[in-house]
Amino acid sequence: MAKYMLIMRSTDEAAAKFASTDFNELLDAMGRFNDELIRAGVLLAAEGLEDPSSGVVVDFTGENPVVSDGPYGETKELFNGFYILDVASQQEAVEWAKRMPYMEGSKAEIRRVPSIDEFPQDNEWVQKERAWREQTGQL
Fold this sequence. Notes:
The protein is an alpha+beta fold and 139 residues long. The protein has helices spanning 12-19, 23-40, 90-98, 124-135, and strands at residues 2-9, 43-48, 56-59, 66-69, 79-87, 107-113. It has 4 helices and 6 strands, in the order βααββββαβα.
């Protein structure tokens, strides 16, 4: 099994449709989908994010980091939530993503989350992280 992150991206079109949709309907649809993931045993984490206007950006493009109010970039560059699934393949992650109850105009980016086993095991920092993951029950 491998971990895959499904990064939820919204467009202006999807955001407008979201704003005009009954929130309880959205919660019901997402709840049913999340329940399917849980029953299938593939859901590791899922979170939605607050509106981008409430965030801040730390920009490292200059000599010193600059903090400014969000959002960063254009709406098409923002993401509004994520899932982390433990599935057998990228194709399985794609199949789950295709079943999500998201608004027309939304997009899901799917990326594999590398395991700590894929990093040099003789590195001091990898060893410390592995110990932390073992201590917290993540391994």
